[in-house]
Design brief:
Layout lengths: L1 E2 L17 E9 L6 E8 L3 E3 L3 E2 L10 E9 L3
Length: 76
Amino acid sequence: MTVEPDLTFLGDVVEVDPDAVYEITYEIHGDESGPVIETAELSDQTSLNYTSSMISTASAGTEVSAEITDVSVQGE
């Protein structure tokens, strides 16, 4: 199964520096071999770059979820 992040920012957009590049580390749950850790990159406040992840689930009914584990600013 191919999974991609679908992120929603719940804070005040004023807090997001339009000139900064943010690295967002997230953990995908549901893969039969354990959590998969990936990183996405946010730039220009709206441009999200990431690589799709391939995971294997134990069954078709397995729920896949993700949790953001870290957000950092590149260069800091």
